[in-house]
Amino acid sequence: MSSIFNGPYTAISSAGAFGPQWLEQLVWQLLFVDGELAHYRVTLTSEDRHWRIVRPAPDTPIAAVRRLEHEFSLAPRLMPQWAVPPVALLSGSEGTLLVLEDASGMLLHDQPDAPLSIKAFLQRAIAAAAAVTGAHEAGLLHRDIKPCNLIEDANGGVRLSGFGLSVDEQLAPQLPVSDVTCGSLGYMAPEQSQQLQRRTDQRSDLYALGMTFYEWLAGRLPFEAADAVEWVYCHVARIPPPLSQRRGDIPAPLAGLVHRLIAKNPEDRYQSAAALHRDLSEMHQQWQQFRDIPDLQPDLPDGRHDASAVSPSPDPKPVAGLESLSSASTSTTLAGRDALDLSSVMKSAHAMRDESEQDRLIETLLRNTIIHAGAQRALLLLVKDEAPVICAIGQGGVDGLGIELTDRVPDKQHLPLSILYRVMRTRQRLVLDDVCTDAYFGADEYVRQHPVRSALCVPLVKQGRVLGVLYLENNLAPGVFTVCRTEVLELLASQAAIALETARLQQELEQENARRRDVEIALRGARARLAEVAQSTVMGELAASIAHEINQPLASMVSNAAAGIRWLNRDNPEVDEALSALRDIVAEGRRAGEIVNALHSLARQGPHHRRRLLVNDVIRHVVALTGVEVEQQRVLMTTHLTCSPLRVCASSVQLQQVVLNLILNALDAMSAGDHVLRRLSITSEVVGRDYVVVSVEDSGRGIEPENINQLFNAFFTTKDKGMGMGLAICQSIISAHGGHLYAMPARYGGATLVFTLPILE
Ligand code: ADP
Q1: Above 80 in pLDDT, residue 350?
Q2: Which residue's CA is the closest to the ligand 1 atom numbered 21?
Q3: Of 455, 425, 424, 422, whose CA–CA distance to 438 is shortest?
Q4: Which region ranges are annotated with the description Disordered (predicted)?
Q5: Residue 319 banded pLDDT, cuts 50, 70, 90
Q6: In the chain, pLDDT over 70 holds for what percent of residues?
Q7: CATH 1.10.510.10 is right for the domain spanning 103-307
Q8: 229 with 194: CB under 8 angstroms?
Q9: Between 550 and 568, where is the model more confident?
Q10: Which CATH class is domain 337-503?
């Protein structure tokens, strides 16, 4: 290795020996890279002396350089018994270098033999605990304990390095909260992530040491995460998988010790490195003696030695949906809360953009919210018809974080109803640090069943209306949900609410569209069927009408022909009579033809050949035609026709049809029964100046009141051989001429059929 630095370096330490010439003679060996800092072992071959040098990568943010300066400033307090002391800080044109003593030992992060044997672990752990004890006794919080900052020296001792984030224990409580999110993500104590609004203290270092121990024993960290937000979530809310599950040969008290170190709540951890050192030494002794570690005498009255108190059981899988894992061991100084908040909000925004399915969207949003908040359990409720309904439940469990979409009425099994109702009523968020001990909410039935520590309940309000409620809880530690963080949660939650509302509207719209499509299809079908039916009805009606209307002239022709034959068959044939019968036949035949034409145009609804005509002429003509039948039925037929020359514009054939029908119906009505006097009266008169009114009145059996509204319906008939088409056709003809056709009781107990027609000027 050759020197990679050019240009003059000024030693800014007291060590004048580390000048440019010194640098030029060094042989460099890269040990590892920790984030922006590269660690080298350098050798001055001429003197066979070694140092370690930490050098920031090119374009490193100034904060990393500050960390080196800070570490160097601590040099007088870093004792070689427990620390690797810096010996010089060099500054040159290519950056700053921190020169450290070389402990000529191993870095404890890249051991090929990991996981360690129990014996090797105990020896190393004792040495590490001693080093941390040394730092704490010197009044320093290291704040970045991890394997690569623990260096085993030639004598088997462990020394701490990487003091760039360390602070004086006395100063720590005065640091602003936003300054304490630091350390390496995989090892960072919950309180160090400043998710919890608690100060870091020595117990935060013990947490990081516990994570290191876990890694040494299990070969890997208890958690895996994709980014800073998820790491924080893991430390705050996820229960580490029991060591015993990762490795079968770990004595329970040792596993208990490690789990106690990584308890979420600082109060549940070892309270000092010295106490830890003591227990480890005792375990080591037992191990030497028995190759086993029987239970230690618990030194706490509540027996918090027991690992099961903090690690319920099975082995959770990593949080679902992680592709790339972010580096767990790189030192980080997150730019305070805002960086995490922004990251969560961005994630949710991406979800809103990318997830088109409502269910997936709710899942993603709830997952983000849980991870962001450091919750163990979350419920998303929506208000439907004024009542809350649980629509999603998120729960950190043994298999990682599970989200269940549901549709349930909340009850005391699901969440503290007292909290839910309070939030719905007041529309104010509720942040509870330790629900179990809360005088009011502590009495809630749910809380009595489930020991809730931290709880947060946020109303999702849109335009003054409570759309839903988000409920979060964490039973591992009190004070997880701090008031200052709820704003981002509210933002996330309202994103969820808006997404849900939008999705609901979208769904309704789709349903509505689907309904409309169905209706349209049904309507089209109905129309098609209607058209078919109408077509066949028209055809049927037409056929029936033709039969009905043609029957009458045919009957008349047959009887005339029979009469003609009789006249001619006589011994003295009555040729004149026969001729007259033949003429009638011709007339009837013509009429039948005309009727067919008229019906044809009626069916087509086309224009009829209309002309100005005298209504009375039409009546007279039909009366003449029916004279024979009237006589045969012994009916007294009278006509009272107005003397004014009433002209209408009409088809004479159609009007004849109408009058004929009415007369024939009247004769039919009088045919049954033994009426003393059968009367048929036909009148025409003018009403006002506009209408001519023609009535055909008989003394028949009359019309049953229940039938009066059906007379004009096609196929309505009360006769055995009737077709029920006559009046229907009459009505359609009269309407086509701008008039009306009615039926009413007659003066002599029979029926009167009346039609009107507009008079021509
Ligand atoms: P059809 O004569 O083939 O029955 P219509 O349409 O001409 O068909 O008449 C329908 C029904 O109206 C008749 O069956 C009958 O019951 C009733 N009707 C029509 N005219 C009279 C009338 N003058 N007196 C009593 N009932 C009548």
Answers
A1: no
A2: 665
A3: 455
A4: 294-330
A5: very low
A6: 77
A7: yes
A8: no
A9: 568
A10: alpha beta
660 Cβ below 6 A of ligand 1: no
Tokens in use for 628?
Answer: 């024979």
Residue 703 CB less than 6 A away from ligand 1: yes
User: Is the model's pLDDT at 136 over the cut of 90?
Assistant: yes
More confident residue, 670 or 10: 670
User: What does the alpha-carbon distance between residue 92 and residue 85 come to, in Å, rounded to a whole number?
Assistant: 21
Query: Residue written as tokens 């008169």?
Result: 685
Q: Does ligand 1 lie within 6 Å of residue 723's CB atom? A: yes
Q: Residue with the nearest Cα to atom 23 of ligand 1?
A: 666
User: Rg of the chain's alpha carbons, rounded to an integer?
Assistant: 53
Selection from 676, 692, 694, 660 nearest residue 749 by Cα: 676
Q: 110 is written with which tokens?
A: 């890249």
Which of the residue ranges 163-167, 344-348, 703-707 would you say has the lowest mean pLDDT? 344-348
Gap from CA of 360 to ligand 1 centroid (Å):
71
Average pLDDT over residues 72-101: 88
Residue in 665, 682, 711 to alter for ligand 1 test, most ligand atoms within 8 A of Cβ: 665
Task: Tell how far the Cα of 598 is from the centroid of ligand 1, in angstroms.
Answer: 21
CATH number, span 611-758: 3.30.565.10
Q: Is 665 in the pocket of ligand 1 (CB under 6 A)?
A: yes
Question: 682, 694 in Cβ contact below 8 A?
Answer: yes
Q: Does 714 sit in the ligand 1 pocket, CB within 6 Å? A: no
User: Which string of DSSP letters, residue by residue, matches 313-334?
Assistant: SS-PPPPTT--SPPPSSSEEE-
- Ligand 1 centroid from CA 634, angstroms: 20
* Residue to probe by mutation, ligand 1, list 711, 730, 734, most atoms within 8 Å of CB: 711
Closest C-alpha to 365, from 494, 468, 460, 483: 494
Q: Is the CB of 663 under 6 A from ligand 1?
A: no
Distance CA 587, CA 514 (A): 64
**Least confident piece of the model among 50-54, 425-429, 470-474, 663-667:** 425-429
Please tell me whether residue 670 adopts helix, strand or coil conformation.
helix
Ranking 10-24, 203-217, 719-733 by mean pLDDT, the lowest is 10-24
Ligand 1 atom nearest 752 alpha carbon: 23
* 727 in contact with ligand 1, CB cutoff 6 A: yes
Length of the chain: 761
The pLDDT of residue 334 is 47
pTM (global) more than 0.70: no
Output the CA 646–ligand 1 centroid distance in Å.
28
Best residue among 712, 717, 721, 723 to mutate for probing ligand 1's pocket (most ligand atoms within 8 Å of CB) is 717
What amino acid occupies position 49? R
The residue extents of the domains of the chain are 1-62+85-98, 103-307, 337-503, 508-603, 611-758
Residue with tokens 């300066």: 69
Q: How many angstroms is it from 632 CA to the middle of ligand 1? A: 20
Instruction: Give yes or no for residue 679 CB within 6 A of ligand 1.
Output: no
Q: Which atom of ligand 1 lies nearest, measured to the CA of 665? A: 20
Alpha-helix runs per DSSP H in 102-142:
118-137
Q: Given this model, what pLDDT does residue 200 score?
A: 81
Mean pLDDT for 110-120 is: 72
> What token pair was written down for 216?
């040494």
For residue 711, how far is its CA from the centre of ligand 1 (angstroms)? 7
Residue 317 clears pLDDT 60, i.e. is over it: no
Share the mean pLDDT of the chain: 79
pLDDT given at position 416: 93
Is 700 touching ligand 1 by the criterion CB < 6 Å?
yes
Q: Which atom number of ligand 1 is nearest to the Cα of residue 716?
A: 10
Nearest atom within ligand 1 for CA of residue 718: 14
pLDDT band at 23 (very low <50, low <70, confident <90, very high): confident
Task: Indicate whether 541 pLDDT > 60.
Answer: no
> Among residues 676, 674, 657, 650, which one has the least CA distance to residue 728?
657
Band (pLDDT 50/70/90 cuts) for residue 111 is low
